[in-house]
């Protein structure tokens, strides 16, 4: 055997031993001992894959508060993830009636919730009113027309007034009630701009596409681009209440009930109050 061949042959055992040593360093420890734990990142990814996903359909006016509560709830319940679906309460109600996979519903309309209870889409005895709100008229923060009373909306210089579609948007329904009560509804028909939810009303005023708009006080507080021109007389519209309920068809009843209980906790209610929501009328 020549010297070169002999040298190569002697390297084989050494290389094998080195590879064996490397393998032992990355494999479980010696027999009888516990295996090394998986890296934390693997635990999180496994947990996320196995998490229960709850779909929460909620009135658009709850967006800011619920986005914050989502973080708190998921941090306290790592096995549950929330999928938030915002929109007009009437639209969300119809989605549930048509079989949308929703677990918990938060409405800005007691009427929308009552219809679901009547159809047994939610349990009538497991529905609770969480919050209250107020109706206001907003104008663009930068300038805007001097609107101080409801009657000012009828002035010729006011070209467009934004409201939610009364048939599906509770804020629009409350606005219509107030306008009917003040005998302004018929005269304002030609200048109203109807929006799919209260947040779109807010955006319409923010962008100057309407001179004024009817929104909740909480929506007005969430925007620096509008100012409150006037608070609508609460005697001219029905009390604004936000009921919540677990949807009967939920596939995750235990987790849905846990989130429902969280919404009624003092921790959650304190966050809602931070965003301007009030206690329900009469409580």
List the helices and strands and how they pair.
Layout: H1 3-26, H2 40-50, E1 52-59, H3 63-76, E2 80-87, H4 89-97, E3 104-106, H5 110-118, E4 128-133, E5 135-140, E6 161-164, H6 170-181, H7 185-188, E7 192-195, H8 198-206, E8 212-216, H9 217-221, E9 226-231, E10 240-246, H10 253-263, H11 266-274
Parallel strand pairs: 1-2, 1-3, 6-7, 6-8
Antiparallel strand pairs: 3-10, 4-10, 5-8, 5-9
Helix pairs in contact: 3-11, 4-5
Tell me what you see in this structure.
This protein is of the alpha/beta class and 283 residues long. The protein has two domains: 41-132 and 241-274, Periplasmic binding protein-like II (D-Maltodextrin-Binding Protein, domain 2, 3-Layer(aba) Sandwich); 135-231, D-Maltodextrin-Binding Protein, domain 2. 41% of the residues lie in helices and 20% in strands. The protein has helices spanning 3-26, 40-50, 63-76, 89-97, 110-118, 170-181, 185-188, 198-206, 217-221, 253-263, 266-274, and strands at 52-59, 80-87, 104-106, 128-133, 135-140, 161-164, 192-195, 212-216, 226-231, 240-246. Helix 3 (63-76) links the parallel strand 1 (52-59) and strand 2 (80-87). The N and C termini lie far apart (99 Å).
Q: Quick one: how many beta strands?
A: 10
**What do we call the CATH topology of the largest domain?**
D-Maltodextrin-Binding Protein, domain 2
CATH class of the largest domain: Alpha Beta
Which blocks of ≥5 consecutive residues have pLDDT under 50? Answer: 1-47
Largest sheet composition: 5 strands, mixed
Biggest sheet, strands in spatial order?
Answer: 2-1-3-10-4
Helix content: 40-55%
Give the end-to-end Cα distance, rounded to a whole number of Å.
Answer: 99 Å
Number of domains: 2
**CATH architecture annotation name of the largest domain:** 3-Layer(aba) Sandwich
Q: H/E element string?
A: HHEHEHEHEEEHHEHEHEEHH
Helix/strand/pairing category:
alpha/beta
Overall geometry comes to elongated
Q: Overall pLDDT, averaged?
A: 86
Percent in strands: 15-25%
């Amino acid at each position: 055997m020549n010297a070169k061949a002999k040298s190569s042959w002697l390297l084989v055992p050494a290389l094998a031993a080195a590879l064996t040593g490397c393998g032992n360093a990355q494999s479980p420890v010696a027999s009888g001992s516990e295996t090394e734990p998986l890296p934390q990142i693997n635990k999180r990814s496994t947990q996320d894959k196995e998490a229960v996903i709850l779909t929460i359909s909620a009135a658009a006016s709850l967006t800011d508060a619920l986005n914050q509560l989502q973080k708190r709830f998921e941090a306290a319940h790592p096995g549950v993830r929330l999928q938030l679906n915002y929109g007009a309460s009437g639209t969300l109600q119809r989605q549930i009636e048509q079989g949308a996979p929703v677990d918990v519903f938060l409405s800005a309309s007691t009427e929308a919730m009552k219809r679901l209870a009547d159809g047994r889409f939610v349990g009538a005895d497991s529905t609770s009113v969480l919050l209250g709100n107020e109706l206001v008229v907003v104008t663009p923060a930068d300038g805007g027309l001097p609107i101080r009373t409801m009657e000012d909306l009828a002035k010729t210089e006011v070209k467009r007034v934004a409201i939610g579609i009364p048939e599906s948007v509770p804020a629009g329904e409350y606005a219509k009630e107030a306008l009917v009560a003040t005998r302004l509804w018929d005269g304002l028909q030609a200048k109203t701009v109807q929006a799919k939810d209260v947040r779109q009303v807010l955006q319409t005023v923010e962008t100057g596409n309407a001179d004024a708009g009817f929104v909740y006080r909480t929506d007005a507080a969430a925007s620096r681009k509008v100012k409150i021109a006037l608070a609508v007389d609460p005697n001219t519209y029905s009390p604004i209440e936000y009921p919540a309920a677990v949807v009967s068809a939920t596939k995750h009843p235990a987790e849905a009930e846990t989130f429902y209980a969280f919404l009624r906790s003092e921790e959650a209610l304190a966050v809602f109050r931070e965003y301007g929501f009030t206690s329900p009328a009469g409580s």
